[in-house]
Structures are given as C-alpha cells and as structure tokens.
Write a structure and sequence with these properties.
single chain, two-stranded antiparallel sheet
C-alpha cells in the first residue's frame, strides 16, 4: 500500500467536511454519487468536524462486505 503525506491530500479550507455535504435523495444513484464526490473532493481523506478521516484498505485483507456481515450478525446475536 502506498502511504501519502496527509498534508498533500487534505486541505480543510476546501470545504470537504462531510457534515456540510448535502445530497438530494430524489436524484438517481449516479447523480447522487457525482454530487457527493463534487462536494467531498477526496472520498479517502476528508474532515468530520475537527477529526480528519483517512480511509485505506489492505489488499490482502478480507472484503468489506464480509466484515460488515460479520459485524451486524454479531450485533443481532446471529
């Protein structure tokens, strides 16, 4: 995995705080996605209030859908 200097990928002044993102739910999925990306700028590095969120994935790791299924199954006691 390539590690990037967060200062190169994140600039809080560009308005990419996820709390300020508005998506019109009446639009079709592709337009909502484009709207989201246009507002958040970088979906892998954004701000949530005063917290910087940086998303990365392990290429050798388990798939997210499998991890989410396991997580929610445990919550439901399955």
């Amino acid at each position: 995995m390539i590690e990037e200097d967060i200062s190169k990928t994140f600039d809080g002044s560009v308005g990419n705080d996820i709390g300020n993102v508005y998506i019109d739910s009446s639009k079709e999925a592709e337009k909502r996605m484009k709207e989201y990306l246009g507002q958040i700028h970088n979906p892998y590095c954004f701000q949530c209030g005063s917290t910087v969120v940086r998303v990365s994935f392990n290429q050798e790791g388990k798939e997210l859908k499998d991890l989410m299924l396991k997580f929610f199954s445990r919550l439901n006691g399955i």
